[in-house]
Structures are given as structure tokens and as C-alpha cells.
Design goal:
Layout: E1 2-6, H1 11-21, E2 28-33, E3 49-52, H2 58-65, E4 70-73, H3 80-85, H4 87-105, E5 111-117, H5 140-159, E6 163-168, E7 171-172, H6 185-194, E8 199-202, E9 208-209, E10 212-213, H7 214-226, E11 235-237, E12 243-244, H8 245-256, E13 262-265, H9 280-285, H10 294-306
Parallel strand pairs: 1-2, 1-4, 2-3, 4-5, 5-6, 6-11, 7-10, 8-13
Antiparallel strand pairs: 9-12
Helix pairs in contact: 1-7, 2-4, 4-5, 6-8, 6-10, 8-10
């Protein structure tokens, strides 16, 4: 396998590259990242050819795709709030950029795995979001991700491109940074709690999320690539847990061994109230997967923030039986 990982210096991408490097069937890894949210330091110790560039550069994409057997497309402009601030930039990367990746793949037809998002469901009232539900994104970010996965499936039908779109749900873990306006909830909570500050709780804190530890995600991605798996519809990559943000605060307090206060802030535009995956299709395709429990994953994340673990290395948190 010769694998191109777009966004490979980012949070999920760097973890993925570490797992790929552990697999004997992977002969070469190429990373394409514009470093807008990624960091080359995330790839320390990983044997990969790193190209600094954008998925909006069509000539560069064509050159890189020509020599690979697999493309795992993770590059994105993340964050719902960020997309509300600059919707055109969000669309350019998440929708048009994905189209550029697919077009580059059309000639040589490598196996393509791409990351979509639970944001495509919006506030659909169905408690467990399954892949046959109507999609109703509430933000430009969700709309762009929906466009990207729709293009992937259209290329599969029109050109025979082997594709597998995954819908990620609140992935978290080491390497996911805080300290900026668009930080995801777990790094924002952990960072504030370790500084002894109240965690930023938007709304009443009863909104729920299906948190998924990053190592669980990357093991599924690598297994899907190794087996060249495809699907005629997107696949939820989450395991059906439901955790309120208030409960997340309680779990964090238990790990830290001290109370964690909350700073109550106004609800955020574009926020989804309830987000929980139905993992039925995922478990049919990946019957051996064993997700990391929230307490274990959150503890590993806290250790990384405290600087007491090697980034991305979690030998005790396996994900396959």
C-alpha cells in the first residue's frame, strides 16, 4: 500500500499516520497538509514524506495521487463556529477541495476514504442518527461536508471510483489543541480545568455528544484501507454513546480528583442539541472493533495536556478484539 493522507499533520491525520506506519503492508506514506491547523511536530518519529501544500492546488494533487494506491482524505477547514464567520472559505476547502481530490483520483482510481461529519444530520429529531435519515445541516460547515460526501458517492457511481465516506462524531484525544476561539469541547474543557479555570459551557450543558477516541477512529480507517472497503452510503464512525456536557465535566473532575467549575455562556449558533450515532452499519462492516471508553480516552488526553505521555502513543488502548 502506498497511501496519501491529506491533512496528515493535523490531529486525526497524525494519529492515522502513526497507525499506518505500524502496518507491514504499508510501503509508503505521503502527507499533504497546508499547516493551517496541522503541525509538523505531530509527525515526529513517523516515517512519511511530507508535502506542504493545499488541496486547492489541482496540479499538486494530480502529481501526488498518481503514485499511490490509497487516498485518505482528512484535510478540512474545521469548526462549525469558524464556518459561520467565513462560510466561503469553509465551502472552498470542504466542498470544492474535496471535489479536487476526487477529480485527481478519477484517472488512476485509488481507493478513497474520506471524512464527513455528524453535522450533516443537523437537529434531526431521531434520537440515534442512522445513515438513512434525511440530512439537514444547520451550518455552512455541515453543508460543505454533505456536499463532499455526495460528490464522493457520485464519483463512485459515475466513474467507478472505490470510495468509503465516514461520518465522524466528536473525535477527541492527544494532539487536539485548545487555546483558540474554535477549540473543540474536550480540549477546551481539559485546558481550562488544568489551569484551574471554569470550563466554558454554552447553553444549559444538557446537549449530548457521541465522543469517539481518536485511536478508535484511526484503527477503523486503516482496516478499511487494508481491505479496500467501499459503501454505497456514508458510514457513521462512532459507537452510540450519549454524554451530556455536564456529565463530561463530572468525569473530568473525577479524573483530576477535584471539582471542576463551569462558566455558563450563551448557546452557540449552529450548535446541535442531541448527537448520537447508530453504529449498526459500522459494526456490520467492522465486527471486531472495541471502542475506547470515555474515561480511558479522557484520562489519556489529560496526560497529554499535562505533558506526561508521548504524543499519539497509547499501547494500552487497543481497539480490536
Amino acid at each position: 500500500m502506498r497511501v496519501l493522507v491529506t491533512g496528515g499533520a493535523g490531529f486525526i491525520g497524525a494519529h492515522l499516520c502513526r497507525v499506518l506506519a505500524e502496518r507491514p503492508e504499508v510501503g509508503h506514506i505521503t502527507v499533504l497538509d497546508d499547516l493551517s491547523s496541522g503541525d509538523l511536530g505531530n509527525l515526529d518519529g513517523v516515517e512519511a514524506a511530507v508535502v506542504t501544500g493545499s488541496i486547492l492546488d489541482r496540479d499538486l494533487l494530480t502529481d501526488l495521487v498518481a503514485g499511490v494506491t490509497h487516498v485518505i482524505h482528512l484535510a478540512a477547514r474545521p469548526s462549525v463556529p469558524r464556518s459561520l464567520t467565513d462560510p466561503l472559505a469553509s465551502h472552498a476547502v470542504n466542498a470544492t477541495g474535496t471535489l479536487h481530490v476526487l477529480e485527481a483520483c478519477r484517472a488512476s482510481r485509488p481507493h478513497v476514504i474520506l471524512a464527513s461529519s455528524s453535522s450533516v444530520y443537523g437537529d434531526c429529531p431521531e434520537p440515534r442518527k442512522h445513515e438513512d435519515l434525511p440530512t439537514r445541516p444547520l451550518s455552512p460547515y455541515g453543508a460543505g461536508k454533505l456536499a463532499g460526501e455526495a460528490y464522493a458517492l457520485a464519483y463512485a457511481h459515475s466513474y467507478g471510483l472505490p470510495v468509503l465516506p465516514f461520518r465522524f462524531f466528536n473525535v477527541y484525544g492527544p494532539l487536539q489543541t485548545a487555546g483558540h476561539a474554535y477549540a473543540a469541547v474536550i480540549p477546551a474543557f481539559v485546558s481550562a480545568a488544568l489551569r484551574g479555570e471554569p470550563v466554558p459551557l454554552h447553553g444549559d450543558g444538557l446537549q449530548t455528544r457521541d465522543f469517539t477516541y481518536v485511536r478508535s477512529v484511526t484503527q477503523v480507517l486503516v482496516d478499511a484501507a487494508a481491505r479496500r472497503m467501499t459503501s454505497t452510503k456514508p458510514v457513521n464512525l462512532a459507537f452510540g454513546t450519549t454524554v451530556s456536557l455536564r456529565h463530561l465535566t463530572d468525569v473530568l473532575a473525577e479524573i483530576l480528583g477535584r471539582p471542576v467549575e463551569s462558566a455558563h455562556l450563551p448557546p452557540r449558533a449552529g450548535d446541535i442539541r442531541q448527537s448520537q450515532a447508530s453504529p449498526q452499519l459500522l459494526r456490520e462492516l467492522f465486527p471486531g472493533v472495541c471502542p475506547v471508553p470515555l474515561e480511558d480516552g479522557l484520562r489519556a488526553t489529560v496526560r497529554w495536556f499535562e505533558g506526561t505521555q508521548v504524543p499519539g502513543i497509547e499501547p494500552t488502548l487497543g481497539t480490536y478484539a
